[in-house]
Specification:
heterotrimer, A alpha/beta, B mainly alpha, C alpha+beta, B: MetI-like fold, globular, C: alpha+beta, Rossmann fold, 3 domains, 6-stranded mixed sheet, 5-stranded antiparallel sheet, 8 helices, elongated
Chain lengths: 364, 568, 365
């Protein structure tokens, strides 16, 4: 059963779905509620002032996705709103967050919307007042645990989860790993790939396996001398070519993409579960184009936007919208056993340890 | 008499600056700020032992350097790869230089022109191509090897030797130019004397030629070694995945991580800078104290057997460094998943379709071209003025100015950009993350290149040509416009072209300083390599090469026409 | 063009580069319309002095005045830039601009001065005619021979009627024959235009043929200033004596007892008595005579004169075309004799050496 729960030491009561208009001031940034009712644009509702949106004419998007994925999101939005010129910066979540924080520290506020693949920086950003609290009319489509707490800062635009993948050309089916502990077999030494420490989902995997199998798991894993990469596309590229035999954090979305390309790769969903990380979209405070930003958030939250996120071959996210259609492959999120942290405070606090350990494993 | 006296009293103070001094001072000040401002921040970051977030730093010390001891492997890697690459590059350069200047190999002139091309096919393209060729599992060469019945793999490019190989192939043409210049200025009579006595060609080469060119070769070796220390692209593409770090790629990693480890990166940067600085210092000492025989302009009469073998050697070098990589990239770019023996269904033009429609590519390419144009145009004026001030004027302190503008040579681009990141982030004018910042970065790091090119031509223009204009009564600006500039035109054109190409291919600085609206093509290609498929990257790289080649051809055609018109 | 001829005054000019002194406290003046030549071996500071007058070098100390106006004064901190001094210069390398035509080269100075185009046209043609380069106006400067470039450089320098013409070894890059011809032409031109000229050369013949006065320099200092004949006939010291023409230097003990007829006598270490003229110069106890090699006469038979006749033995006789040079043993030393009309004497032959006492000049120490 898919169970994605959020828990925190300072949890507030669950807000009723559809009544997520709590205007909680965050770090002194109060946001006045719009006096008018939401406008209907295309097939969803937005609180953005469409006249002003046209005036602004631009949107700057920071995203953790790979180039093709980020470009795809911008293309999708751009196709629906051709008058808005989109620009983006993509970097892995860690690097991306680092960039926006140092920019803001220097007084630069150039970003409208940011998408991260890890809750830890999202919480941090929320604490710093980095998100603009914006009550979207589309928020009603989500369970409260898939919105920020308090709502309005960010929301879960999708979930990415990962299993094991291997190259069919290099690995015979009887040798293939079936469980996470199979990855520790010495036969995979120097033939395995993983992701770099700024990746959100890699952090989740590290955290969850420490809980599941104890910290020694990663000590053994380090002995495999895995190679680390920036994007899931790269990981699958190498599997498809046979440069690696096994991938320890194979995102389902990439598997789908490569399967369609005709690559000789296989996906394994170990019984213990698949590490999953939410993909979080939020409007940034002091955005240079606030109305366009609001429009984007509404679009992303809407059924229309979610369908785009799910169907685009470069994205293939699992949607959390209550009324979401199945993913591109016909499956739904709830068909997979997903693993994610229960205690987010503990999770966030262990970030530094993860980075240090992972870097040491990679030789830096 | 009274009027003359009054006149001379009115001219009393020679502290009234002439136009020359004012412009010279302004330009020198600009250069000093461009170069020294980021260096200051680099050192500040390296010595910052307090909270990295706090600006300005709270505590200074040398702890960061002490912490480098743990990363000794990276430092050793850097030195090791650089040494290997230097040896290889010198080998390529020496052999080709000897063949092209000391033998009567057929097609000498054409070959000499061709030898410059590897320089334009950057190490980055070479790294991509050789990665496609030499990856142990998926590399084309290895696939062919296995098809021929071999076991395992023949070459593994993702190793220190692989990195050194790629670096050497492209840096080899620099070594060729430097050693070739030395050989050309050698008196062939010295070798002929050896041959008349009866020593064979090879023996002559080893016993006569080699010792005579040794000082020049040593100078080239040091220069090439210093360049290798700061090299980034090959190690990035080939070394990063297999966790083989050199200082530049380690710095890049440390800065892009979350959380970034700035003090450590800065300490590494400063260490690298110190070593490169020392090397270039030694290099300049050797070069200015020429101890080898230089006689200009004597024609030589080479003759040798096995001409065609030597021709084959030259062609082999050019093939390995230019033809093979470009062909490999082309081959890969038209496949869905690049393999050596693709099935019919594997062919596709999708990569090109994606590359040309990807907004990122189009805007990045447009940005790069605009930036290239701006860098070259502004650079030529700025560096022209600086060259004039340093080598031609009587402005005091020109020695210091020369030192300052040659400074960026001792700093790897990435390290420089690192300093610039900090320096310009807090600058009151918001240029951070815009093309303006990249423009400033390029102008700064290309100062040595531009000034070296322009001053080379400038020094050939006899000083008396300007002095005679002076004696005809022409003030400074008039002289520059009517005498100096027209005479320098060929050199200025060459400098423009060099600056244009250098800025479009620039990677080390751009990769750190790009912003959302300021993407440029080479870092975009690198990003694509790491975040998309190799085939798409190959397509992007070829598009970039084609566009640059077109721009260059256009420029050459236009300037040739302009020079023709000027002579009518 | 004569109304612009100016008086040049150089006062205590010093030029130092780092620790080395190129010119050390040199003073001289040039009269209006005069051609003064700075003569000396390379490194003597003549070019530096010329360039200092031009304004192309900045001196360390001293003063330079041209036409009464101070163009440089270290005391008053004045340094007028070269382009404002109203001078003109012909360079050793001619410095013709290859990217312009002959016309444009010559017209340059006029265009700088914003002279109207019609006037430029006339003046340029006149200047080119003056140097026998009429008809070359449209020729690209890069297609000229050395001699032609020289003339164009001259035309360019004269066309805007400068106060002063400076020449920096302009003929040294020409071959000998052309040099001889150009020398005469330059001299005639200078006379015709009456421009004050300062000329630098290391070539003695040039200096003697072209100058009104010569300044002989060595190691940054002036050795002697005077007219060509003064310099030649009455050298002040050993350096000038041997640099301007070849001379034998004969030192001896003063024999005041033998002084007669206005002549001075000295006795050499070899015992010979030599008579010469003091020309008003102070006599020490051991003066030196300078005797030009061409003034010594060798004859097989003793000549008629009584004073300054000695028997000598010819050690070696070398035929040099225009003259024959003989090395003779004279007492305990050797003297060199040059003679145009002398039958070569055999080695070892005995002969008689004689010289007119008027040709033995006392040197100032």
């Amino acid at each position: 059963m898919s169970e994605i729960r959020k828990a925190g030491a300072t949890r507030r009561a669950v807000l009723k779905a559809g009544a997520a208009f709590a205007a909680m001031p965050l770090a002194g940034k109060a946001f006045a509620q719009p006096a008018k009712a939401p406008t209907k644009v295309l097939d969803f509702h937005t609180n953005a002032d469409m006249a002003k949106v046209e005036q602004e004419g631009q949107l700057i998007f920071y995203c953790h996705e790979n180039e093709a994925g980020t470009a795809a999101i911008m293309e999708g939005f751009g196709k629906d709103f051709p008058k808005i010129k989109t620009g983006y910066v993509r970097a892995q979540t860690g690097a991306l967050y680092n960039k926006i924080v140092s920019e803001r520290a220097a007084g630069r506020f150039d970003v409208d919307v940011i998408q991260l693949s890890d809750l830890a920086p999202a919480f941090d950003f929320q604490k710093k007042g980095g998100y603009e609290v914006y009550a979207s009319p589309e928020a009603g489509g989500y369970a409260p645990e898939h919105l920020s707490d308090p709502a309005g800062a960010f929301f879960w635009t999708g979930v990415s989860f990962a299993g094991i993948a291997y190259s069919k050309a290099k690995v015979k089916p009887e040798e293939a790993p079936k469980t996470w502990t199979d990855l520790l077999d010495p036969r995979w030494r120097n033939a395995m790939s993983c992701k770099i420490p700024s990746s959100g989902i890699q952090f989740v995997q590290w955290y969850m396996f420490r809980k599941l199998y104890g910290p020694d798991y990663w000590k053994e894993f380090a002995k495999q001398r895995p190679r680390a990469f920036d994007s899931r596309v790269q990981l699958f590229d190498r599997l498809a070519k046979g440069d690696d035999k096994v991938c320890a954090i194979a995102e389902y979305a990439a598997y789908v993409l490569y399967k369609e390309k005709g690559a000789e790769v296989a996906f394994v969903a170990p019984a213990d579960g698949l590490p999953a990380t939410p993909l979080l979209v939020g409007m940034v405070s002091r955005a240079p184009h606030p109305e366009a930003a609001k429009l984007f958030v509404d679009w992303a939250m809407s059924a229309r936007g979610q369908a785009f996120y799910q169907d685009n071959p470069n994205l293939v996210y699992g949607s959390l919208r209550k009324d979401a259609a199945p993913m591109r492959t016909g499956e739904r999120l709830r068909d997979f056993k997903l693993l994610s942290p229960a205690d987010y405070a503990d999770y966030t606090a262990s970030r530094d340890l993860f980075t240090k350990e992972w870097n040491a494993m990679l030789g830096l | 008499m009274g009027f003359a006296r009054a006149q001379s009293i009115l001219r009393a103070r020679w502290s009234l600056p002439s136009a020359q001094t004012v412009v010279g001072g302004a330009v020198a000040a600009v250069a000093a700020v461009l170069v020294l401002y980021p260096i200051y921040f680099l050192f500040q970051a390296a010595l910052n032992v307090g909270d990295p977030e706090a600006k300005p730093p709270t505590d200074y010390g040398f702890d960061n350097f002490a912490g480098l001891a743990r990363y000794s492997e990276i430092l050793l890697n850097t030195v090791g790869v650089s040494l290997a690459a230097t040896v290889l590059a010198l080998l390529f350069g020496f052999v080709t230089a000897w063949i092209l200047s000391r033998t009567n190999v057929p097609g000498r002139h054409v070959l000499e022109q061709l030898m410059a091309i590897p320089y334009y096919v950057t190490p980055l393209l070479g790294a991509f191509a050789w990665s496609l060729l030499g990856a142990p599992e998926s590399g084309f060469v290895n696939q062919v090897w296995r098809a021929l019945g071999g076991d395992g793999y023949l070459i593994d490019i993702a190793t220190p030797w692989g990195i050194a190989w790629v670096m050497a192939l492209f840096e080899g043409s620099v070594a060729f130019v430097m050693i070739g210049a030395v050989m050309k200025s050698m008196d062939p009579a010295l070798e002929e004397a050896s041959q008349i006595i009866g020593a064979g060609r090879l023996r002559t080469m080893l016993r006569i030629t080699l010792p005579l060119v040794a000082p020049g070769v040593l100078g080239a070796a040091i220069f090439v070694f210093a360049e290798m220390l700061g090299s980034f692209s090959a190690a990035l593409v080939l070394g990063l995945p297999s966790r083989f770090y050199v200082v530049t790629t380690a710095m890049y990693q440390l800065v892009s991580q979350y959380p970034p480890r700035i003090p450590l990166a800065a300490a590494m940067g400063v260490s690298l800078f110190a070593v490169m600085f020392a090397m270039l210092f030694v290099y300049r000492r050797i070069v200015t104290r020429r101890s080898y025989v230089t006689i200009t302009g004597k024609a030589f009469r080479p003759r040798v057997i096995l001409r065609f073998v030597l021709l084959a050697v030259c062609i082999l070098y050019i093939g390995l460094s230019v033809a093979l990589p470009l062909l490999t990239l082309a081959y890969a770019s038209v496949q869905k998943i690049a393999v050596a023996f693709p099935a019919a269904a594997n062919w596709t033009l999708d990569n090109y379709r994606t590359a040309t429609t990807m907004n990122a590519v189009r805007s990045a390419l447009a940005n790069s071209l605009v930036l290239g144009f701006a860098t070259a145009s502004i650079g030529v004026v700025l560096m022209g003025l600086l060259s004039w001030i340093i080598y031609r004027s009587r402005v005091p302190g020109s020695g210091i100015i020369e030192y300052i503008v040659m400074f960026p040579q001792a700093v790897p681009r990435l390290v420089f950009a690192f300093g610039m990141m900090w320096a310009w982030l807090i600058f009151p004018i918001p240029i951070y993350g815009t093309l303006w910042l990249l423009l400033i970065a390029y102008l700064t790091v290309f100062l040595p290149l531009g000034i070296r090119t322009i001053s080379g031509v400038m020094l050939q223009v006899d000083r008396s040509l300007e002095e005679s204009a002076q004696m005809c009564g022409a003030p400074w600006a008039y002289r520059i416009r009517t005498v100096t500039m027209p005479l320098l035109r060929p050199g200025l054109m060459a400098a423009w072209l060099l600056l244009f190409i250098a800025s479009v291919r620039e990677l080390g600085a751009s990769i750190l300083l790009m912003g959302p609206n300021a993407k440029v093509i080479t870092p975009a290609i690198v990003e694509s390599w790491f975040a998309s498929s190799a085939e798409l990257t190959a397509a992007m790289a070829l598009i970039q090469t084609l566009v640059v080649a077109l721009a260059m051809t256009l420029f050459v055609v236009l300037t040739r026409r302009a020079t023709q018109l000027a002579h009518e | 063009m004569t109304e612009r001829a100016a008086h040049i005054e150089v006062e205590d000019l010093t030029v130092r580069y780092g620790g080395a002194t190129a010119v050390g406290g040199v003073s001289f003046s040039v009269q209006p319309g005069e051609q003064l030549t700075l003569l000396g071996p390379s490194g003597c500071g003549k070019t530096t002095t010329l360039r200092a007058i031009a304004g192309l070098e900045r001196p360390t100390a001293g003063a330079i005045r041209i036409g009464g106006a101070t163009v440089y004064s270290s005391a008053a901190r004045i340094d007028v830039p070269a382009e404002k001094r109203g001078l003109s210069m012909v360079f050793q390398s001619y410095a013709i601009w290859p990217h312009m035509s002959v016309f444009d080269n010559v017209a340059y100075g006029l265009r700088v001065r914003r002279v109207p185009p019609r006037e430029i046209d006339t003046k340029v043609r006149d200047a080119l005619a003056l140097v026998q380069m009429a008809g070359f106006e449209a020729r690209p400067a890069s297609q000229l021979s050395g001699g032609q470039q020289q003339r164009v450089a001259l035309a360019r320098a004269c066309v805007f009627s400068p106060q002063v013409l400076l020449f920096d070894e302009p003929l040294s890059n020409l071959d000998a024959k052309l040099r001889g011809d150009m020398r005469i032409e330059l001299r005639e031109l200078q006379h015709r235009l009456g421009i004050t000229s300062v000329y630098v050369t290391h070539d003695l013949e040039e200096a003697l043929a072209m100058s009104d006065r010569i300044v002989v320099m060595r190691n940054g200092a002036i050795e002697q200033i005077g007219s060509p004949s003064d310099i030649y006939n009455l050298p002040r010291n050993a350096f000038v004596a041997d640099f301007v023409g070849s001379a034998n230097l004969i030192r001896g003990r003063l024999r005041a007892d033998l002084a007669a007829d206005g002549l001075t006598a000295l006795e050499t270490s070899g015992g010979q008595i030599v008579y010469g003229m003091a020309h008003g110069r102070p006599l020490g106890s051991a003066p030196t005579f300078s005797v030009r090699t061409v003034h010594l006469r060798l004859s097989p038979a003793p000549p008629a004169a009584t004073r300054n006749v000695w028997p000598v033995r010819v050690r070696r006789c070398v035929f040099q075309g225009d003259f024959t040079q003989a090395h003779v043993t004279w007492g305990d030393r050797e003297l060199i004799v040059r003679s145009a009309a002398m039958a070569p004497l055999a080695d070892g032959q005995e002969a008689f050496l004689s010289v007119d006492p008027a040709c033995c000049v006392v040197l100032e120490e």
